[in-house]
Amino acid sequence: MKNNTYHIIFDKNYYNKEIGFRSRKHPTWNFTTINGINLNFGGKLDRLNHLISFETDFIVNGINLRGEKFGINFEEFFNAQINGKYLFYKHTKSGELQSLIDNIEIECKYSDYPLKETNVVLAITPKEYTNQEWEGNCNRIGGDPIWIQEPEYLHCPKCNSKMSFIFQLDSGLPDLNENGGNEIMFGNDGICYAFWCDKDKVSGYLWQC
Ligand SMILES: [Zn+2]
Fold it and tell me: For residue 10, how far is its CA from the centre of ligand 1 (angstroms)?
């Protein structure tokens, strides 16, 4: 795929219910989707929570992510950042994700159930929504992040270069707990931002709320 900004479009039955203030009537939930793209989303990735995978050629902000699978531990994600650290994972050739941050202190218990597994399709973001506010469907790939606070970029812990923005996921996605599913919260009802260093094959994550 070419270098675009995409909205992630979920099946109508994916969400459990109305999600907070993010009106399901917002046009960003219902853009026309691209034929032939189907990305695996949610579920487990070894001991981590799988977010999204790019099985075939897929260019995001100039980087081909073919074969890369993204996943994190939600409890560590929340707790690392309240102590001023960010999550980073080295993506090995065998597809394993190795945390580059040691000793993440778990001060706050946090749900670590995976996202409900599904396949998602994509829509090319219409021009008028490129600089979308934090409203409607804020689950996107490529382009620029929708920041809730001031813009914030991560630097690769291996080479110290500014990392490239890859995708963002908004709170409210359904999880897989045994009580029928709750909403995943990134921070306190915020957005999870994923970054990438292509030289070192390192992913980095931060949340804002
Ligand atoms: Zn690097």
Answer: 32
**What's the gap in Å between 66 CA and the centre of ligand 1?**
18
Separation of CA 158 and ligand 1 centre (Å): 5
b/e map 24-37, b = 16+ CB within 10 Å: eeeebbebebeeeb
Name the nearest CA neighbour of 56 among 41, 34, 71, 37. Answer: 37
Q: Residue 46 in 3-state DSSP?
A: coil
Provide the pLDDT for residue 16.
72
Cα of 17 vs centre of ligand 1, distance in Å, is 40
| Environment class of 88 (CB within 10 Å of its CB; exposed 0-12, middle 13-18, buried 19+) | buried
Whether the full predicted model's pTM is greater than 0.90, yes or no, is: yes
Between 13-22, 101-110, 121-130, the lowest mean confidence (pLDDT) is in 13-22
Residues constituting the chain: 209
User: How far is the centre of ligand 1, averaged over its atoms, from the C-alpha of 201 (Å)?
Assistant: 7
